[in-house]
Design goal:
The chain contains 2 helices and 10 strands; from the N terminus they run αββββββββββα. By secondary structure, it is α+β, with helices and mostly antiparallel strands. The longest helix has about 45 residues. The N and C termini lie far apart (about 105 Å).
Length: about 180
Amino acid sequence: MGDEKMKKTTKTIQIGNRRVTLLAAVMALVLCLAIGGTIAYLLTSTAMVQNTFIPGNVDVEVNSNDQIVYNGNTDAYIRITVTALWMKNNQVHGEHVPDWDMELTSDWVKETQDGQDFYYYNKVVHKGDGPITIFTAAPHLANNSHAAPESGFIFTYQIGAQSIQTQPQDALDDANWQYTPSGN
């Protein structure tokens, strides 16, 4: 009799383990379904957002009317150089520099840096601004001096234009611009 009682106890324990195992399996299944359903909901109801980055562009050019055309997409500063030359057949006469002069509009400020003359536009240029006039009187021979150094050479000038974004200030400092326009 003592052995039969022991067997019943053992059976009860085995049935109890099955219940615990079955209960644990059901809870794990419910948990998996809840997590799976939540993930499925988030994946189907969350819209994707694309992060778009547009780099700053400060493209500047000189048109055929000796005007600055700004094609950039961010606020910028502009400076130019003007170099007068004697030329013949696309060759520069290297020994003689023309005696020349020019008159800039009041919107330009002359600064010399390392022996080079730069002309800074004294306003911030914005996207969509129209052409910027440089001269009231374009470069011309000074003192009525029209003598070319040699036959066939003609007086000409070249305009070089540069632009730089207004922000961050570090960009201007790194570029070593000597003048910062104060106008808008």
